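Q: What residues go here?
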């Protein structure tokens, strides 16, 4: 089968049933198509079918497709998208494309999305859905039901929020209570207390804490004046947390958060190359340390054979400490205040593991070389380097967090530099000091 036939088969598979039933898989297929063909697939299908697929597309693909979609299709997509995703998209567009989208949306809807883009990336305001409708406490059940019938997106609605004349929250009514209530009953008679709410400036971690503590399907968002301005649905939050976790995996090795599996080669290169250049610089730094002991290595060639053993073990030990610390920060098990405790723990873990690994190493090196001096050198270096690795693995992410930086972005690169330099220096430095024993 030719490449052209393959593409035709993929396009034929992207019918409405496939798009609606498997939006993520469909998004992956669309990302593999030429942009004009992908735009044609989206334009041919009803907006109810294409919105989930559109939201699952890589951000760079969505940006490129905007230029190729007709105005009426783009208007419907923007209007039906979840506001946080639409706001993120607007924030990434150039001025010309952003102006086009705002014109298509209309002044009121565009202002609401622009307001969302002004919130910090990791804040409750950025995660919330501002389209939620508040109800008056004195409204009857019949009036509330009639009003809900006019909602464009009522599916998944599980509770109604009640507000007073000032827009402040006064209670909530669960949908099942509305379903079994008499038509003349008032909403305030069915109301339950608001167990928790968050400020629009609250961080994602604070929102997660409150949702987990109270087991809420959704959490209302209020501004500094106490006015009800939106809701964060649990599903949206879970998706955001999952995305953040997967992005951390990419950023820890120097890949961009924006890159997807099927992103363009040029896009991937421009995002990855700067970090590879930084890695190269750190590799030269480690090589420079080895160069300081060139004479000792030339005199005792066995040192060159064993050098990777020390660096490899310290690198693994540091990665373990880094992973535990990063997870603790992500789950808010620890904060910057716990730095001394984390350092004490990881230094002790590094020391004990270093002693155990050094004992095993000593047996192997002695059997191989028969040199007690070489055994002493590698054992001392192993303990020193693993203690330093444990210290660094805990210190680096917490220090970056304290400085307001993303610890996932560069922790592993800094850690690799530290473990390589300390591992090489400790091993070769001890060998130089004890060369009369070798």
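A:
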């Amino acid at each position: 089968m030719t490449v052209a036939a393959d593409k035709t088969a993929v396009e034929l598979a992207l019918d409405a049933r496939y798009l609606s039933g498997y939006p993520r898989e469909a998004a992956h297929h669309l990302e593999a198509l030429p942009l004009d063909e992908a735009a044609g697939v989206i334009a041919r299908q009803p907006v109810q079918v294409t919105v989930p697929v559109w939201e699952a597309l890589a951000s760079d693909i969505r940006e490129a497709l905007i230029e190729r979609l007709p105005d009426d299709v783009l208007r419907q997509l923007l209007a039906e998208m979840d506001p946080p995703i639409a706001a993120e998209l607007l924030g990434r567009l150039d001025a010309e494309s952003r102006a086009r989208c705002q014109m298509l949306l209309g002044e009121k809807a565009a202002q609401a999305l622009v307001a969302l883009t002004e919130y910090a990336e990791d804040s409750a305001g950025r995660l919330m859905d501002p389209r939620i409708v508040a109800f008056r406490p004195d409204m009857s059940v019949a009036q509330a039901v009639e009003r809900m019938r006019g909602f464009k997106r009522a599916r998944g609605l599980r509770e109604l929020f009640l507000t007073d004349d000032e827009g402040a929250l006064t209670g909530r009514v669960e949908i099942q209570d509305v379903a079994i209530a008499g038509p003349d009953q008032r909403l305030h008679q069915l109301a339950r207390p608001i167990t928790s709410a968050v400020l629009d400036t609250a961080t994602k971690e604070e929102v997660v804490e409150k949702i987990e503590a109270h087991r809420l399907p959704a959490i209302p968002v209020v501004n500094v004046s106490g006015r009800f301005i939106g809701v964060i649905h649990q599903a949206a939050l879970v998706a955001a947390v999952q995305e953040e976790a997967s992005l951390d995996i990419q950023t820890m090795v120097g890949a961009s958060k924006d890159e997807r599996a099927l992103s363009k080669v040029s896009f991937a290169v421009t995002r990855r190359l700067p970090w590879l250049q930084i890695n190269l610089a750190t590799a030269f730094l480690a090589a420079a340390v080895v160069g300081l002991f060139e004479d000792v290595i030339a005199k005792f060639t066995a040192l060159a054979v064993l050098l990777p053993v020390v660096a490899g073990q310290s690198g693994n030990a540091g990665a373990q400490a880094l992973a535990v610390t990063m997870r603790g920060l992500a789950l808010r098990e620890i904060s910057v205040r716990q730095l001394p405790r984390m350092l004490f723990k990881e230094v002790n873990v590094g020391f004990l593991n270093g002693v155990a690994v050094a004992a095993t190493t000593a047996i192997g090196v002695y059997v191989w070389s028969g040199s007690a001096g070489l055994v002493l050198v590698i054992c001392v270096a192993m303990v020193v380097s693993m203690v330093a690795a444990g210290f660094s693995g805990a210190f680096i992410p917490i220090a970056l967090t304290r400085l307001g930086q993303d610890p996932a972005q560069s922790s592993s690169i800094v850690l690799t530099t530290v473990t390589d330099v300390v591992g090489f220096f400790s091993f070769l430095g001890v060998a130089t000091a004890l060369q009369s024993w070798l």
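A: Context that may help when evaluating the design: Residues 265-437 form a domain with the Tetracycline Repressor; domain 2 fold (CATH 1.10.357.20). Strands lie at 134-135, 159-163, 169-174, 198-199, 218-222, 228-233.
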